[in-house]
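wait is this the right file?? whatever heres the structure
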């Protein structure tokens, strides 16, 4: 799909369902739109030049509305390498001690925080105090109280806070959401979300409670939580959960290996989910309603996402998730665009309230009532 005609044809049939031209390849999008786009560009600094930060930076090269212009890192050698690769001027480079000075830098609009989970809270609040918009990776914090403090700090400092929920812009996911809103599944009855992978290196921060805030639930189970909400289209009102641990050396106290949890929704729909660091090939969503179903596998990986419904295969083409996400987030921050599924701080806090309740349910063995509003 490389020609302008193909693009226009595709756009004509799909414009109503898609938030911002997500149905074409990154290359054709870049070539078609760079010629026409004259709007404001969101100038972004990435904080934390690790594995996911690197992926986001590469994806941003294909963005039209967002541009990588700065870095915040504790590793000088990475800063030098990124400066050379992305043409980043010295004045836009910071470390964790001095990044509050970003306040005085008029050439940076937003900071994307992509560091270990437990650091997000303080870093986001510092960025907010510096008067810059913030995009924060999931989980936005390690509990709902911290998440709420981040929301409050951003509101107080009049900056926007978005959470890196890339699936909220993914075309096949959005098609299932459109079908559900359109009543094509009938009354939704059941959702199943299975998310996990077998984690390696026992010394990594993901297995250190101080930095990760938990275990698989914080990292990968959150996709099943968040997915259950956007697939069912409601916020849950109760949760039950059960934890199992096969390796107490690798998964220390407070670092969950495997948790099964169940959610109940106001309509009567229920969800049954699995979060684990101990199984591969676990990336599957299933939604069942009175009139039909949707199943996606893989459902939240970097893609291509694959899926089908009772009406047939989902055929929306793959686009690099982080490219679409950053272009869409630029629209949200700069123009106040409303995404189909929210990506604001309040959305992140809702998931953290559910995580808090899941951990409480595991500990007490009791059903937990949820009040997310
Ligand atoms: P990495 O370990 O690969 O990178 C984290 C980076 O954070 C480091 O490279 C380092 O960068 C910086 N950092 C600052 N302080 C510390 C510290 N005390 N220990 C370790 N690193 C530190 O992690 P990921 O990039 O995989 O994950 C980062 C965040 O992104 C997490 O919150 C994770 O949940 C999220 N994520 C989201 C994904 C998504 O699909 N939305 C996918 C993967 C991760 P520097 O050297 O520049 O300071």
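ok assuming it is, sequence goes like this
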């Amino acid at each position: 799909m490389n020609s302008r005609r193909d693009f226009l044809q595709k756009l004509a049939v799909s414009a109503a369902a898609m938030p911002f031209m997500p149905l074409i390849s990154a290359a054709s999008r870049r070539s078609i739109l760079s010629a026409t786009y004259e709007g404001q560009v969101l100038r972004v600094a990435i904080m934390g030049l690790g594995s996911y930060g690197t992926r986001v930076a590469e994806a941003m090269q294909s963005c039209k509305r967002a541009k990588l212009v700065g870095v915040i890192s504790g590793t000088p050698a990475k800063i030098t390498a990124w400066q050379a690769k992305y043409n980043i001027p010295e004045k836009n480079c910071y470390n964790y001690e001095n990044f509050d000075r970003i306040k005085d830098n008029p050439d940076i609009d937003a900071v994307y925080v992509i560091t270990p989970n437990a650091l997000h809270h303080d870093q986001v609040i510092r960025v907010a105090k510096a008067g810059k918009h913030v995009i924060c990776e999931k989980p936005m914090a390690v509990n709902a109280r911290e998440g709420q403090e981040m929301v409050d700090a951003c509101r107080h400092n009049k900056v926007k806070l978005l959470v890196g929920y890339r699936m909220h812009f993914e075309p096949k996911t959005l098609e299932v959401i459109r079908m559900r809103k359109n009543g094509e599944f009938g009354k939704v009855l059941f959702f199943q979300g299975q998310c996990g992978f077998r984690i390696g290196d026992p010394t990594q921060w993901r297995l250190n409670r101080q930095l990760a805030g938990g275990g698989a639930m914080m990292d990968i189970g959150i996709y099943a939580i968040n997915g259950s909400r956007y697939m069912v289209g409601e916020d849950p009102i109760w949760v039950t959960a059960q934890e199992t641990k096969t390796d107490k050396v690798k998964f220390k106290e407070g670092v969950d290996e495997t948790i099964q949890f169940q959610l109940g929704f106001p309509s009567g729909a229920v969800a049954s989910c699995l979060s684990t660091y101990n199984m591969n090939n676990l990336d599957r969503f299933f939604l069942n309603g009175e009139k039909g179903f949707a199943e996606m596998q893989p459902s939240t990986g970097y893609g291509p996402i694959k899926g089908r419904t009772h009406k047939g295969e989902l055929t929306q083409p793959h686009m690099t998730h982080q490219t679409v996400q950053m272009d869409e987030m630029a629209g949200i921050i700069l123009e106040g665009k409303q995404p189909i599924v929210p990506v604001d701080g309040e959305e992140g806090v809702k998931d953290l309230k559910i995580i808090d309740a899941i951990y409480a349910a595991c500990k007490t063995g009791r059903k937990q009532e949820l009040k997310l509003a």
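Residues 133 and 160 are 5 Å apart (CA to CA). so i think its the right one actually
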